[in-house]
Amino acid sequence: MLFALSLILFSGHAFGQMFAPLSNKSFPTNYAYSTSQDTVYVFYDAANAVLHARHSSGTTADFVWSKFNTGSKHFDQVVGQDLGMTESLLTVTQTGGYSVSITPLVGAVETDTAWVYIDTFSIAGITVNNTCSFLKLRVNTLPESYDYYDIYYDLSQLPNFLVPISIKNKLFVDWLKNGTDTLDYGQVLTLQYDNLPVEDAYYTVDVFDVLGKLQKSQTAVIPAIAPLAKYDISTWTDNTWKATTDDVSGQAPMKLQLTSQSKNCDSIIWTGFNDVNLFYKGGDSLLWHEHRLASDNIYETNQLMPGKYGLRLIAIKESSGCRDTLGLKYVTVLTSKFNSDLIPNVFTPGGAFPSFKMKSDTSSIRSIRSISVKIYSRWGNQVYTYQGTVSDWTGWDGKTESGANAPAGVYYFIFTAEGWDDVYYNGGPYKGFLYLYRND
Fold first, then answer.
1. Which site among 175, 336, 417, 434 is 20 to 30 Å from 167 CA-CA?
2. What's the pTM?
3. Separation of alpha carbons 403 and 120, rounded Å
């Protein structure tokens, strides 16, 4: 590229040939004040930072090397002349701009310029911020940017004007946990919430700078100081514990088994919150509040009556003082319901409907503590009675209390029921007539 040492742009000069065969990367400059561009050479190893120059004709010439002075805005000669050579080499020890003037015995003087970076990109360290709520890792690197200067303009028009052009050192970062688990990319890695570490681990980082240079670093093993609260819920159903989802709903009386799956903790606290309406009626706001060792991880509740109950688990790491709270999960125990539409009005012992029994519908008969069934003949004589739970009632098989077959005809029934929420169902639709048909 052609220029005088005063940085005033000239024309009529020939381009010389400067190159760097051992550079790791090269790219053109992006001068704003000239269509002519120079070359930026990047060396990852300072031992390879050597510039070569020759005249475009290949003839012997005298070579003069200069380095750009950002203070004076001039190129200052840096070494003695190479005289009568076909090629000249300059060993570069500092990042900066370099020019070479090539004067052949015969022919035009040629000048070329290049910018050289001895890439000092490095990882200065990894900052670790380990708290109860997050683990934050930051890889610190230098330098933040690479600069060169736009030297091609007329200083008579823009005196004392020197424009730096910065190449921001954009980083490409890969994090690994324990050498295998890939984590989110970025100079700052933040692990929190569900990703908060609950086991000791070390972290490695691979960082590429904007020029493609790779640096690696690794932390020491970082202790996990935060616990993770987690638990499963089962309900006592059909004489066994059955696992449920987070949305727990069912009939009264409901009994729960809470199993802690918490990690990295020494102790746990189970808390059950009473239904608001039951609390207003005089109940305690807390149904249970149990502080236990983490190894004692199963808690079985008392029977829950109709209402909506909050559950909470706190996992505690005693050595760090950190806590993790999982709450509130809610359990809904359904209010009682006894649908009279399920009472049949006809049955046929020995036939398609062999017994007088309510139709099965758990959504319409629920949370019932007990039922009473009484059946009378049309003359007012009681022929059948039952007192107990809905699940134990097998129905009336058409026999009288003496064991004889009741004759076909019309009978009168009376149902009463009591819910676990102390709601009573009687009268009205719970009294009526039924027809007994016989084909046996």
1. 175
2. 0.71
3. 103
